[in-house]
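Internal QA ticket QA-208
Title: Verify multi-chain structure generation after dependency bump
Assignee: T.L.

Test input:
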Amino acid sequence: MDKFVNLIQAAQAIAPTAGPPAELVRLTADDTPIVLFTHQVVEVILHYAREPEISSYVHCNGGGESRCALCLAGRSLEERYLLPVYLPLSRSVGVLPISHSLRPNSLLCLLLPHLEARAEPVSPPPLLFVRRQDTRFTVSSGLLQPGEDDGAAVVKAFRAQLADGRVRLVDMFPRIPNDRLSAIPDIARLLALKGIPTALETRA
Ligand SMILES: [Zn+2]
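Actual output:
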C-alpha cells in the first residue's frame, strides 16, 4: 500500500527556514548598479554544499570549529560580509556578499574608498556599477541625477525591519542541522570514510 504524507509538511521538513529576507546580489560580467547606504555588515561563515539536495551556500554549524558535519567532511569555509545595498533596477534592497580578500581588484578593496569617503549612514548615497569576471571585480562611479530615486523610502522601511528583527541578514542562507546534512548520501559517505560518527548535535 502506498504511504501517503502531507505534501506541505514534507516540504517544510526539507526547507524549514523561511525564504531569504532580500535579494542576493549575484554579480556578473555585466554592470550591476548598486547604491550604498550603510557601512554596517553582518559576518557569516558558509560552506558551499554542491549536493543536489542542497546546491547552495549554507551556514557552517560550528563557526569553524569541529561540530559541523560539513567541516568534518572536509568542506572548505568561506567567510563573507553581507552588505545591504539598494538596487535601483528592481527598486529593492539586495544583499551583496563580500569576501574578506583585500588584494587589488577584490570587491572589498574597490568598495572601501566609496564608504570611507562618507559617514554612516552613507550620505549622499553613491551610485556604483559593479561587475565581476572570475575573481576580478570592477567598480565604477555613477552620478544619481537630481530627482533620481535613491531608494530612501525603501531603505527606510528596510532599516525599520532590521531594527525590530523582522528581517535578519543571516537568514540569506539556510542553516541546515547536522543530522540532515549527514543524512545526505555523499556527505554520509565522506563522514564514514573519515570514520566520523554522524550523530552530531547542531549548536543552537
Ligand atoms: Zn562547518
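Spot checks passed. The chain is about 25% helix and 25% strand.
Status: verified.
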